[in-house]
């Protein structure tokens, strides 16, 4: 049996670039402008340390479209290259072999933006161009160079008459990429990738109004001149020190990031660290609805002011991906696979730092102006509650600022809540029972009954509340949560004293038999309870455990044994000390007895929002008829 090694011919390197990077073909412009920016910033550094005896001036990068000639020009005023440097950096590295290219590329994802990572940024031009020219003049006193390549290993390199410092790259756009000769397409790419590049980028011109002269006539018409159209902001807010920015500056930058967003953010967090990694950025807390169907991917990730992605999963803690803003770091390995990213130590440190910074900011806001923090609670709670469940480090700090509001508009931290409720809401077994409502309107009657007992009821209405209270119960001994409609109040917070039933055991058995013959047993379990005679005669409750497990399963509880599809089951709690219970027992006419039970059941359903559709129509019609 013969064996051997297949060698990939160097002639195939350009087709390979097109094939492997095709899904990312638009980033050629980002890469070429990044190179132009690097060349300009390098010149700035060399002039500042005296190694380049030239005037830095006010350089810019210019993008030009020649639609008729099918050419795209990228022009910079950076340090340029000599003939020898073109030979070294453009030719030798590029043609080191397709085999080496493939070896470097094999573990990366197709959409990972691999080009710049391997120094192939310039060669991304061949994804859209059939021929590429470089005309470059070094800041050194040497002749300009002119390099031409048509995508094969053959190239030409000769001197050129260019006298101005810098580099011009000319892309002869291929027939399958003519979209990149459209002004709207290039404008869109510049706005997406280069909006905050540190060197001004010019794309065409725009009209600008001249100031109106002081002595202008009444019929003066505004005059306009053509000025360079600079498409970027070279000094965005995140590159500045927090002490140099005002509240208005942060708000204006938010509008710059999200021009179609009309609501202002609630507050911002400025990130600025240079050890043990480099990271800058600004995160904004927008107003959020109390649900998990929130559009993520609103945080923009940059590397040295070059836009990379708005998918920051793995870099920003998951619960904070609901925020908006910018993160910029040269220390994140952007051009590698997702699995590598998740395993990278620097990325984990950055994620932990962001969690800590957000926690510290929230604590600071809470301590500095608690009233203002409370007023914003409903707009931020879903993020914080999700953070408590998904990030252990955030959960550790959350006790300092996470709030628990009551139906009376009070706000407590967990420690404050325990202290406020201990005296009145501790049951006979020594457990502190925290009552809560998920819907104040739907559960109003139950809240009212609890308040009559002097109990406080929290408002916990987020879709993940069942997960949250499960965790809080696990971490706090002798603390339990119960939704206010989970049972009648005397059972939710059981004290030593018990009510004595007016009915004998025989009468209770007779009443239960009567009720079970009329009440649909597939949905309601009849419970007889001795309560205060003034308490509701019929009450529908849903057992806390069953309802909570079902909610957790529906909201992604996982491992809840399919309880999300389990049918709704309720308890019908009948007060044996009510006049209605006595009347039902005393009524001999079966039709009248059925009518009493059905009316009472419908009223109990109504108080829980369970009377709907045909049943509600029938109930309303029946009650109108009784008024005749």
From TrEMBL:
It comes from the Bacteria. PROSITE patterns: HSP90. CDD domains: HATPase_Hsp90-like. InterPro entries: HATPase_C_sf, Heat_shock_protein_90_CS, HSP90_C, Hsp90_fam, Hsp90_N, Ribosomal_Su5_D2-typ_SF. Residues 486-513 form a coiled coil. Keywords: ATP-binding, Chaperone, Coiled coil, Nucleotide-binding. The keyword Chaperone applies. The keyword Coiled coil applies. It holds the Pfam family HSP90. Belongs to the heat shock protein 90 family. This is Molecular chaperone HtpG. It comes from Flavobacterium chuncheonense.
């Amino acid at each position: 049996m013969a064996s051997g090694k297949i060698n990939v011919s160097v002639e195939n390197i350009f087709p390979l670039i097109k094939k492997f990077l095709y899904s990312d073909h638009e980033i050629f412009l980002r890469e070429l402008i990044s190179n132009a920016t690097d060349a300009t910033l390098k010149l700035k550094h060399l002039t500042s340390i005296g190694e380049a005896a030239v005037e830095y001036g006010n350089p810019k990068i210019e993008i030009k479209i020649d639609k008729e000639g099918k050419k795209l020009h990228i022009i910079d005023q950076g340090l340029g290259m000599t003939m020898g440097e073109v030979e070294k950096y453009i030719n030798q590295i590029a043609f080191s072999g397709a085999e080496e290219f493939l070896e470097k590329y094999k573990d990366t994802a197709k959409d990972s933006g691999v080009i710049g990572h391997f120094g192939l940024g310039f060669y991304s031009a061949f994804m859209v161009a059939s021929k590429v020219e470089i005309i470059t003049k070094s800041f050194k006193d040497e002749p300009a160079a002119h390099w031409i390549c048509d995508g094969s290993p053959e190239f030409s390199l000769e001197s050129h008459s260019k006298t101005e410092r810098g580099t011009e790259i000319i892309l002869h756009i291929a027939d399958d990429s003519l979209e990149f000769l459209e002004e709207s397409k290039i404008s869109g790419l510049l706005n997406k990738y280069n909006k905050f590049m540190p060197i001004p980028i010019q794309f065409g011109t725009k009209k600008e109004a001249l100031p109106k002269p002081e002595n202008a006539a009444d019929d003066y018409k505004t005059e306009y001149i053509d000025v360079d159209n600079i498409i970027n902001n070279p000094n965005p807010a995140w590159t500045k020190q927090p002490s140099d920015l005002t509240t208005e500056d942060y708000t204006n930058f938010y509008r710059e990031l999200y021009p179609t967003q009309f609501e202002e953010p609630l507050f911002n967090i400025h990130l600025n660290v240079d050890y043990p990694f480099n990271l800058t950025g600004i995160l904004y807390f927008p107003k959020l609805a109390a649900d998990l169907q929130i559009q993520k991917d609103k945080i923009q990730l940059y590397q040295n002011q070059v836009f990379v992605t708005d998918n920051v999963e793995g870099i920003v803690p998951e619960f904070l991906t609901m925020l908006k803003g910018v993160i910029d770091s040269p220390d994140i390995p952007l051009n590698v696979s997702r699995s590598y990213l998740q395993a990278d130590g620097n990325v984990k440190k950055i994620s932990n730092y962001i969690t800590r910074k957000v926690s510290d900011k929230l604590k600071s806001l809470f301590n500095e102006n608690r009233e203002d923090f409370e007023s914003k609670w409903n707009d931020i709670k879903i993020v914080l509650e999700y953070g408590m469940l998904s990030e252990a480090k955030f959960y550790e700090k959350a006790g300092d600022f996470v709030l628990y509001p009551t139906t009376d508009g009070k706000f407590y931290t967990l420690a404050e809540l325990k202290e406020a409720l201990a005296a009145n809401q501790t049951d006979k077994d020594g457990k502190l029972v925290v009552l809560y409502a998920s819907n104040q309107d739907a559960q109003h009657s139950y809240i009212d009954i609890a308040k009559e007992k002097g109990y406080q009821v929290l408002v916990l209405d987020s879709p993940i509340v069942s997960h949250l209270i499960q965790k809080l119960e696990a971490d706090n001994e002798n603390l339990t949560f119960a939704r206010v409609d989970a049972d009648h109040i005397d059972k939710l917070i059981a004290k030593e004293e018990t009510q004595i039933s007016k009915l004998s055991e025989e009468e209770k058995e007779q009443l239960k038999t009567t009720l079970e013959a009329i009440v649909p047993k597939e949905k309601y379990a009849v419970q007889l309870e001795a309560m205060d005679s003034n308490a509701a005669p019929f009450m529908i409750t849903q057992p806390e455990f069953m309802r909570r497990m079902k909610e957790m399963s529906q909201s992604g509880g996982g491992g809840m044994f399919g309880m999300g599809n389990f049918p709704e089951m309720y308890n019908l709690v009948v007060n044996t000390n009510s006049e209605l219970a006595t009347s039902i027992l005393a009524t001999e006419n079966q039709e009248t007895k059925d009518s009493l039970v059905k009316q009472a059941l419908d009223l109990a359903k109504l108080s829980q929002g369970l009377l709907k559709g045909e049943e509600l129509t029938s109930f309303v019609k029946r009650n109108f008829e009784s008024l005749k």
